């Protein structure tokens, strides 16, 4: 593990992308797992690969309601102009039948194609004469409208790799293979602390100077969305003693600790000194606005495994950005997931902006469609204490340090939706 040294000696700050890479490298996946029925497995992380127990589809089956036939029989009947008699009827759920020669089968979507048939013609493309014989009105191609046995997966194929988070579509996929239960990682247990004497919980009366604890509400929602179990340690007073006690208890109750506030440089900011006493600091201070005082370290425990600690800045937008860009990939690593690659693409700036000299800036923006593609507009006030813009933003513009953005310039956009998968 690296020390807390910044990689930019001039600014004293660690590069944003280096910090992200270090966090991804440092995440040691949880080893414990449990077996769950599919009905309780959505959002959980597969601990073992899911393999196909059979071919999918299980048989050649029809993609259309229509008529299954041999192309050779059809061509013969077309030369003679007498159409094909319907000899069998194959509904979905029927077993695999055999197609007698010189005729066709009435067939329905999903029904097994009878042996011998090599094409299915949709019913809209046939004409049925008075004798009930089928005439095909358009050209047909060998194999058309037949979904082939095993075309999606063969027995033994990998269906989903270990480390995949189970989306509703993934649950459906497993069910389509007949899989009823899966081995998943146990939920990551995250202890959450909010430091600050000014903090009170929403729903309680407020005195002047007090601030509602928005970080805990937001982080609980973010952690729940990632399938984590939150151990809520509440609001901790701004004293080193209170923080030391709270962090040691948090360490003993969770796989990871997240605290907010108290990571800056004032004498009321106790996270770093307490971390020095209880464990070790890996880094502090990132070239990121908002989010500069982001802190990463380890709480040591003589009798149990070490527990990682992430200290998010108190300013609510700094906490949010510090979660999305840095904490989330670390949490995903602990969960045994492959941390997602940050999705970014280029849009046009709809405003001018002079960037911070030392830090990447994450501007909260909304996208609007314009003639030559999407244009980013500021979603509202950009203060790191203002959640209003973050709450309605579609994503971030990530602006390089020292750059100057002019209206109409190409800029890097990072959609927020990616942080919710
Ligand atoms: N002299 C300096 N002062 C500050 C610096 C600096 O480099 N030099 N950095 C600034 C930056 S950047 C940030 S971000 C903040 C971060 O400070 P802390 O992490 O120590 O946070 P606090 O001081 O405890 O609080 C900052 C701000 O956020 C509000 N807050 C805190 N917790 C919550 C919460 N759970 N819910 C809602 N709001 C919260 C708090 O009331 C303060 O307004 O430091 C700058 N200062
Ligand atoms: O992280 Mo602070 O909010 O950059 O201002």
From TrEMBL:
Protein EC: 2.10.1.1
Catalysed reactions, semicolon-separated: adenylyl-molybdopterin + molybdate = Mo-molybdopterin + AMP + H(+)
Keywords: Magnesium, Metal-binding, Molybdenum, Molybdenum cofactor biosynthesis, Transferase
Membrane spanning residue stretches: none
Ranges where the MoaB/Mog domain occurs: 191-333
Pfam family, one: MoeA_C
Enzyme class: transferase
Biological or metabolic pathway of the protein: Cofactor biosynthesis; molybdopterin biosynthesis
GO cellular component terms given for this protein: cytosol
Matches recorded under SUPFAM superfamilies: MoeA C-terminal domain-like (SSF63867), MoeA N-terminal region -like (SSF63882), Molybdenum cofactor biosynthesis proteins (SSF53218)
SMART domains: MoCF_biosynth (SM00852)
Coiled-coil annotated residue ranges, if any: none
Cofactor: Mg(2+)
GO molecular function terms listed in the Swiss-Prot or TrEMBL record: metal ion binding; molybdopterin molybdotransferase activity
One record GO biological process: Mo-molybdopterin cofactor biosynthetic process
Family: Belongs to the MoeA family.
PANTHER family: GEPHYRIN, MOLYBDOPTERIN BIOSYNTHESIS PROTEIN
Its job: Catalyzes the insertion of molybdate into adenylated molybdopterin with the concomitant release of AMP.
Name of protein: Molybdopterin molybdenumtransferase
Organism: Vreelandella rituensis
Taxonomic placement: Bacteria, Pseudomonadati, Pseudomonadota, Gammaproteobacteria, Oceanospirillales
């Amino acid at each position: 593990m690296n020390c807390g040294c910044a990689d930019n000696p001039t600014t004293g700050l660690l590069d944003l992308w280096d910090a992200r890479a270090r966090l991804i490298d440092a995440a040691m996946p949880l080893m414990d797992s449990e077996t769950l029925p599919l009905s309780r497995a959505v959002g959980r992380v597969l601990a073992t690969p899911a393999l196909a127990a059979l071919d999918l589809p299980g048989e050649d089956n029809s993609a259309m309601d229509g008529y299954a036939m041999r192309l050779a029989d059809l061509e013969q009947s077309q030369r003679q102009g007498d159409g094909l008699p319907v000899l069998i009827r194959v509904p979905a759920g029927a077993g695999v039948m055999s197609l007698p020669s010189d005729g066709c089968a009435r067939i329905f979507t999903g029904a097994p194609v009878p042996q011998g048939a090599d094409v299915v013609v949709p019913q809209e493309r046939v004409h049925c004469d008075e004798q009930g014989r089928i005439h095909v009105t358009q050209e047909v191609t060998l194999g058309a409208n037949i979904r082939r046995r095993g075309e999606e997966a063969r027995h033994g194929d990998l269906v989903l790799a270990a480390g995949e988070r189970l989306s509703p579509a993934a649950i459906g996929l497993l069910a389509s293979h007949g899989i009823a239960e899966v081995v998943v990682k146990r939920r990551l247990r995250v202890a959450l602390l909010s430091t600050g004497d000014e903090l009170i919980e929403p729903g309680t009366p407020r005195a002047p100077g007090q601030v509602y604890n928005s970080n805990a509400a937001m982080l609980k929602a973010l952690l729940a969305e990632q399938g984590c179990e939150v151990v809520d340690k509440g609001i901790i007073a701004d004293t080193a003693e209170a923080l030391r006690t709270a962090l040691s208890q948090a360490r003993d109750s969770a796989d990871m600790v997240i605290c907010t506030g108290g990571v800056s440089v004032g004498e009321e900011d106790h996270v770093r000194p307490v971390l020095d006493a209880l464990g070790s600091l890996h880094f502090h201070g990132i070239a990121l606005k908002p989010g500069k005082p982001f802190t990463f370290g380890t709480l040591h425990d003589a009798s149990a495994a070490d527990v990682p600690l992430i200290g998010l800045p108190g300013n609510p937008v700094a906490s949010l950005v510090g979660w999305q860009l840095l904490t989330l990939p670390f949490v995903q690593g602990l969960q045994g997931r492959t941390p997602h690659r940050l999705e970014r693409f280029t849009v046009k700036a709809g405003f001018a902006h002079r960037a911070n000299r030392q830090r990447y800036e994450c501007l909260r923006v909304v996208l609007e469609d314009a003639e030559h593609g999407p244009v980013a507009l500021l979603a509202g006030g950009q203060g790191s204490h203002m959640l209003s813009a973050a709450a309605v933003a579609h994503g971030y513009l990530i602006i390089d340090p020292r750059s100057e953005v002019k209206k109409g310039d190409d800029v890097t956009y990072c959609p927020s939706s990616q942080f919710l998968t």
